[in-house]
Write a structure and sequence with these properties.
RGS; 63 residues; single chain; elongated; mainly alpha
């Protein structure tokens, strides 16, 4: 069994930690870390699919 946590579980744990914070500054910092480490990575991992779709879509109107 792998020692590395499942990404979805780690994301959930980070969200729970965020919910427990009361200081707006700490919440802002953790929110940024969550965004960078989970959401942005996921968006970038799939950006090639979106770009390809956009290119094919734009070529459709050029013909």
């Amino acid at each position: 069994m792998s020692e590395e946590p499942i990404p979805q579980l780690r994301f959930y744990e980070e969200i729970k930690a965020y919910e427990k914070l009361e200081c707006p500054e700490e919440r802002r910092k953790l929110a940024r870390e969550i965004y960078d480490n989970f959401i942005m990575k996921e968006l970038l991992a799939h950006s090639h699919v979106n770009m390809r779709s956009l290119i094919l879509y734009s070529h459709h109107f050029q013909d």
